[in-house]
Specification:
heterodimer, A: alpha+beta, 13-stranded mixed β-sheet, elongated, B: 236 residues, alpha/beta, 10 strands, binds adenosine-5'-triphosphate, binds magnesium ion
C-alpha cells in the first residue's frame, strides 16, 4: 500500500501539468466549499455573539399580556399579578442552568427625568443588588449601590455611558443631582458593560439592535422605585445562565415558575415569557445559512465535474499503460492488485487536490474577511471532511478506470507496443 | 515425469464472423529439465502456443496439465498465481517497466508472490548476479543496452525459481554477440535443471536447444519432420 502511494506520487510528479489540470475541478470545488463554510460559520458566530452579548449569557423573563411584553409606562399596574418575592428569586436561582437571578423594574421610555434643563428620553431601571453582576456591568467612576442605599431607601442613581452623553453632555455626572418623577436623586457612579461583553456593531442590523439603548439608562435602587413610580409593581427577571446552550431551557423554566406563582387567576391574559435571544440568533443564522446552502450545491457540481475529469484522465492513463499492466498480470499480479494501484492513484490525486483546495479556500476566506470585514471561522471539522470527501471522489471516479485496468487481457496488453 | 502435457490443443480466433483455427490438435509433452526450441514461419501460431503454455490464454479445446495439475476452468486470479509460481517469461521486446530500476524490475514477481521486501532485494540481486549485471542493479532500462535489458528480463523470469522458462524470440531484437550471451545463460540455467521452451526464427539459436519442434500452419511436428534445420524459415 505504501508502495502504491509512492508510485502514485511518482506518477503524479511525472505528469505535473496534466495532474494539476486534472485536480483543478476538485481544487476549485473544495476551495469554494471551505470558503463558504468558513464565512457562514464566522457570520453565525458573530450574529450569536451580537445578539446574546458575547457570552454574558443573560436571558430576561418579562410579564406578557396576550403574548406581548407588558409595558408599565403606558398600561399601568397589571391586575392580578403579584410582586416577586426574594424567596421566588431564590427558587429561580435553584433552577437547572441558572447561575444568578436579578429582579428589576423598568420604564422603556421615562418622561419625567431631568438634569437641569435637559430632558432625558432613555430608560429607567429599578434594580436589586444582583443586577449589575448578572449583566456584567462594572462601575467606571464613583461607586455602586451599597447595602445602606437599599436599606435606607436613599435617593441615589447610577447612569450608563449613554446617559452620560445624552443627559450630561459628556460631563462627569458623579455628585450631580437629577430630578426623577419630581424627586431629587444624586448620581453616585457610572456603570458600563465591561469591555469583554461589549457587543460588536458591524452593520445596520446590529446598530438597530443596540440603538434603543443608546439614549442611555438611569438606574435607581429597587427599594426606592415605589417612591418614584408605583407601589407593588411586578418586576421582570434577568437570569444569568451557566452557558449559552442553557439559555432557552432556563428561560422557559423560569417563565413557567413565575407564571404559576405570580399570576393569581389561571384565566388571566397575563403570563411570563422569556425573551430568547438565542432563538432569534438561530433564526438569523438559518437565513444566512439557506442562501449559502445553495452556494454549496453549486460548489458540489464543480466537484462532480472534477471527479469526471479525474475519471477521464485515469482512463487515458490506463490505455497508456496497457503494456505495463499486461506485463504485471503476466508475471503474476492479481486483479485486486492492479485495481488497488489505480484506485490509490486516483485517490491520491484527488486527496492532493482536496488539500490544495483546502489551503486555497482558507487563504481565500482570510482574503475575503480582510477585504469585506466579514468574520471567518475556519473549522477543523470542515477541513477534515473536505479532504476525506475528495479522497472518496477519487475512489468513486477511479473505480471504473481501475476495473478496466484489472480486467485487461494480458495477451492483448502485451501485444500492443 | 512430464512437467507439461498438452493434448489435442486447438485454438480458434474469430476473424470477423468466421472462426479461424490457429492451432490444430497440438499435442506436446515436455519432461522436466528439457530444453526445447520451437521454430516456424511467421503467423504459424508459435506465440499462440506459447501463450497457452504460459497460461496467458486458454485453449478452445484440448487439455493441458502443468506439473500434474489440470488447468481447465481456472479463474483469472488462479491462473495469475500459477504463472507467478511456475512460469518465467522472456519476451522479444523485454517488457521491462521503464520507471523501475533493474533490481526493482527483477524483484517484481517476488512482490506478487508475497515475498517480504528484504528477501526480495536479496534474491533479485542474486538473479542479477547470475546474468552478470550486478553492477547495473540501480540502472533504469533506458540506461541499458538491448542485450543488458534482455538479461535483466531473464533475471526477472528466473528469480522466482519457476519450473519452466518460456522465451518468445529472446534474441529477436539482439545482434549475434548479445544473442549468444543470452544462449550461454540459457545453457547454464538448463544445466542447473530448469525446463526451457524457446521460440526462435534462427537455426543457430535453435541449435542451442536439445530438441527442436516445428510449427507449420498450426500443426506441431517433431524433429525429423521435413523442414528441420529451418531453411524454409529463412527462405521466407
Ligand atoms: N487475438 C487474435 N485475434 C485474431 N487472430 C489472431 C489473434 N492472435 C493471433 N492471431 C492470428 O493467429 C495466427 C498466429 O499468430 P501468432 O502470433 O501465434 O504467430 P507467430 O507464429 O508467433 O508469428 P511471428 O513469428 O510473426 O511472431 C496469425 O495468423 C494471427 O493473425
Ligand atoms: Mg510470435
Amino acid at each position: 500500500m505504501i508502495e502504491n502511494i509512492r508510485l502514485a506520487f511518482q506518477g503524479i510528479w511525472g505528469h505535473k501539468l496534466r495532474s494539476v489540470l486534472t485536480m483543478l475541478g476538485i481544487i476549485i470545488g473544495i476551495a469554494a466549499i471551505i470558503t463558504i463554510v468558513s464565512t457562514i460559520k464566522g457570520t453565525n458566530e458573530q450574529i450569536k455573539e451580537n445578539l446574546i452579548g458575547a457570552g454574558n449569557n443573560v436571558v430576561t423573563v418579562q410579564l406578557n399580556q396576550d403574548g406581548y411584553p407588558y409595558d408599565m409606562s403606558w398600561q399601568g399596574i397589571p391586575q392580578g399579578v403579584r410582586v416577586i418575592t426574594e424567596e421566588t428569586r431564590r427558587e429561580i436561582e435553584d433552577l437547572r442552568g441558572v447561575e444568578r437571578a436579578s429582579l428589576y423594574t423598568h420604564r422603556s421610555y421615562a418622561e419625567m427625568v431631568y438634569y437641569q434643563d435637559t430632558q432625558f428620553n432613555g430608560e429607567v431601571c429599578g434594580i436589586d443588588e444582583h443586577y449589575l453582576s448578572v449583566y456584567g456591568y462594572q462601575i467606571r467612576s464613583g461607586r455602586g449601590f451599597t447595602q445602606k442605599d437599599y436599606e435606607d431607601m436613599r435617593k441615589v442613581a447610577l447612569v450608563d455611558p449613554g446617559a452620560v452623553k445624552t443627559l450630561f453632555g459628556g460631563e462627569d455626572p458623579v455628585g450631580k443631582s437629577i430630578e426623577l418623577q419630581g424627586e431629587v436623586f444624586t448620581v453616585v457612579g457610572v456603570a458600563a458593560l465591561s469591555e469583554e461583553f461589549a457587543p460588536t456593531i458591524q452593520n445596520m442590523n446590529d446598530y438597530w439592535l443596540y440603538a434603543d439603548t443608546s439614549a442611555g439608562t438611569v438606574y435607581i435602587p429597587g427599594t426606592v422605585w415605589p417612591a418614584a413610580y408605583q407601589f407593588d409593581e411586578p418586576q421582570n427577571v434577568a437570569i444569568k445562565v451557566t452557558d449559552t446552550d442553557a439559555m432557552a431551557s432556563a428561560g422557559k423554566d423560569a417563565a413557567e415558575l413565575l407564571t404559576a406563582s405570580q399570576i393569581a387567576n389561571t384565566e388571566s391574559t397575563f403570563d411570563y415569557r422569556s425573551q430568547d435571544m438565542l432563538e432569534q440568533a438561530q433564526q438569523l443564522q438559518s437565513m444566512s445559512q439557506s442562501t449559502n446552502v445553495q452556494l454549496i450545491w453549486i460548489a458540489s457540481i464543480s466537484l462532480l465535474v472534477g471527479g469526471i475529469g479525474v475519471m477521464n484522465i485515469m482512463l487515458v492513463s490506463v490505455t497508456e499503460r496497457t503494456a505495463e499492466i499486461g506485463l504485471k498480470k503476466a508475471i503474476g499480479a492479481k486483479k485486486r492488485r492492479i485495481r488497488l494501484q489505480f484506485l490509490t492513484e486516483a485517490a491520491v490525486l484527488t486527496s492532493l487536490g482536496g488539500i490544495i483546495g483546502v489551503l486555497s479556500g482558507v487563504g481565500l476566506a482570510q482574503l475575503i474577511s480582510g477585504m469585506m470585514q466579514i468574520p471567518v471561522a475556519i473549522s477543523a471539522g470542515a477541513i477534515l471532511i473536505a479532504v476525506v470527501f475528495s479522497m472518496l471522489i477519487g475512489v468513486v471516479f477511479g473505480l471504473l478506470p481501475a476495473m478496466k485496468a484489472a480486467n485487461l487481457n494480458p495477451i492483448d496488453a502485451l501485444r500492443r507496443e | 515425469m512430464a512437467i507439461l502435457e498438452l493434448q489435442n490443443i486447438c485454438k480458434d480466433y474469430m476473424q470477423g464472423k468466421e472462426p479461424v483455427r490457429v492451432l490444430k490438435n497440438v499435442s506436446l509433452s515436455v519432461e522436466k529439465g528439457e530444453y526445447i526450441a520451437i521454430m516456424g514461419p511467421s503467423g504459424s501460431g508459435k506465440t499462440t502456443l506459447m501463450n497457452i503454455i504460459g497460461c496467458l490464454d486458454v485453449p478452445t479445446s484440448g487439455s493441458y496439465v502443468l506439473d500434474g495439475a489440470d488447468l481447465q476452468d481456472l479463474s483469472d486470479d488462479a491462473l495469475a498465481d500459477i504463472r507467478n509460481r511456475h512460469i518465467g517469461f522472456v519476451f522479444q521486446s523485454f517488457h521491462l517497466l521503464p520507471k523501475m530500476t533493474a533490481l526493482d524490475n527483477v524483484a517484481l514477481p517476488l512482490l506478487y508472490g508475497g515475498v517480504p521486501l528484504k528477501e526480495r532485494k536479496r534474491r533479485a540481486a542474486e538473479a542479477l548476479e547470475a546474468v552478470g549485471l550486478s553492477d547495473r542493479a540501480e540502472f533504469y532500462p533506458n540506461q541499458l543496452s538491448g542485450g543488458q535489458c534482455q538479461r535483466v528480463a531473464i533475471a526477472r523470469a528466473m528469480v522466482g525459481k519457476p519450473d519452466i522458462l518460456l522465451a518468445d524470440e529472446p534474441t529477436g531484437a539482439l545482434d549475434t554477440r548479445a544473442g549468444s550471451q543470452i544462449m550461454e545463460i540459457f545453457r547454464g540455467l538448463n544445466d542447473s535443471g530448469m525446463t526451457i521452451l524457446m521460440i526462435t526464427h534462427e537455426p543457430s539459436i535453435a541449435a542451442c536447444a536439445d530438441k527442436t519442434y516445428h510449427i507449420l500452419d498450426g500443426e506441431l511436428h517433431t524433429a525429423g519432420v521435413p523442414g528441420r534445420g529451418g531453411s524454409e524459415d529463412e527462405a521466407e
